[in-house]
TrEMBL record:
UniProt GO MF annotations: heme binding; iron ion binding; monooxygenase activity; oxidoreductase activity, acting on paired donors, with incorporation or reduction of molecular oxygen
Protein name (Swiss-Prot/TrEMBL): Cytochrome P450
SUPFAM superfamilies (UniProt xref): Cytochrome P450
Residues given in the record as heme binding sites: C455
Domain of life: Eukaryota
One protein family per Pfam: p450
Lineage: Eukaryota, Fungi, Dikarya, Ascomycota, Pezizomycotina
Cofactors (names): heme
This protein's UniProt keywords: Heme, Iron, Metal-binding, Monooxygenase, Oxidoreductase
Keyword Heme appears in the UniProt entry: yes
Family the entry assigns: Belongs to the cytochrome P450 family.
Amino acid sequence: MFAQLLELPIRPWQVLLGTFIVYHAVRAIYLVYLSPLSIFPGSKWAALGEYWEAYWNIGVAPGKKGQTLFKLEKMHRKLGGALRMGPNEVHIYDPRFYHELYKPGSKYYKDPTMHKVLGAPSSTLAESDPIRHKQRKAPLEPLFSKKNILSLEPMLMKHVDHCSQRFDEFYRAGKPVSMEWALKSLAMDMVSQFAFGKSLNALADPEFKSMPVRVFQKYLPSLHVIKAFPFVRYLNSLPLWIAKHISEDVVMGHELEQFASRRIEEYIADANSGKAPSFPTLMERLLIPLPEKGYQVPSKQGLRDEILTVISAGDDTTGIANMVTIFNILNNSQVQDRLLRELKTVMPTPTSHAPYLQLEQLPYLTAVIKEGLRYSSPAASRTPRLVPPGGVTLPDGRFIPAGTRVGMAIYHIHYNEDLFPSPRTFDPERWLGDPEEVQNRLKFNVAFSRGNRSCLGINLAYMEMYMAIAYLIRRFDLQLVDTTEKDMVWDDMVVPQFHGELKVMTKRREE
Ligand code: HEM
């Protein structure tokens, strides 16, 4: 019988199929049982391919959208501080490793294969090469310095005033404001004016749902899909007449790119005719070469990529941090009363003004903002890096070889019970009290990440938060409408995507 089988002719496709099966079987045995990463526990599926993450993130099964972060949290609690996350990736939960991975001068660089498919590959955010990254950052660092950002205060104030006027209109019409859209529009106007010199006027949209705000809201969650299936990104390169038939999101993305390109042309034309804005802008800096620092002015497409990346990095993040903080203030009358009492010391009437430098000195407002950043964790997901030559030994003694992807998530640090007891309670008191304890805790308030690749926009984000929260709480007696903690539960769609809406009635305070 066996001899008869051997005599059967073997067809080429059978050879191919057999080779394919044997190759994958051997590969699977190697990855799961023999690879140096096989010492790390975790799902066997995760060891075999990138699709374990996608399964929990992109909604292939009902209720499994944006869940990898939370799934990892549960698994770490059971299986320990380091887990296998992919064929070549380990996920770390142990906070002792955070400041090794994301420290200044860290040799753990971004993984080009991962970052180049996300967003604009030529942007500073996506650049993985440390030398090129330094060159790209050269014009941006002084621009984002605190001194420079302070000069934006009058411009930001104008947008807070515009937002307040829009709140009045909603109140007169007897309609609640959807705060997520309103606060993202506020952040959009601030960051776009900083980028182009002119704001996109998102606050003027009747429902705060202007095209750019909607596009970013839709685009960021699609990064989960692009990460798992990089070819999806190339849909964006299709001619518009084809794209129209495939996806409305792609069409919106095209519209935004064209819109940004027009704004760049306008800026250049204005600057050439001596009409540059009176405050520092991103466009202005990007157009000045710095040969001594290796910075060259990017192409028009490079400029567009950089501008759109900065706007996207600064819009949803700040809008979400403000929204979550405001919800928690309104949801806790003790927090609101104490904050209001403090605000009245520098803004005695609801129409008073207080300079940012004075707001920044208020201890309770500062504690509320720090807690808001911890609690909201707007950039919650893991940010992977590559282990440098020589490999690394984890605090628990296990070794990870060079070239392995390792990542930690800001949310896991912020919700770690050992660092922040009762992490699900919004408690500004954590940031008051014994200065030494607060100082230690501050090391783990990592909303903006740490080290060379930490947030460039931190000074702008703080100023936006202080101004939005101080003025909106001092000016308005905001009342929650049909909003509970359940609405504030979120899925991790690159930025938090909430299950419900924060809606408030926006009545002016009289005293
Ligand atoms: C509450 C608001 C914000 C939070 C929580 C936040 C958080 C972060 C985090 C965690 C990173 C590091 C990402 C990584 O490791 O890949 C980052 C990077 C960055 N952020 Fe922010 N961000 C905020 C607001 C802003 C604003 C307002 C801007 C600018 C207008 C901005 C611009 C950037 C840029 C350009 C980078 C890339 C830095 C680099 O790669 O060198 N961010 N941000």
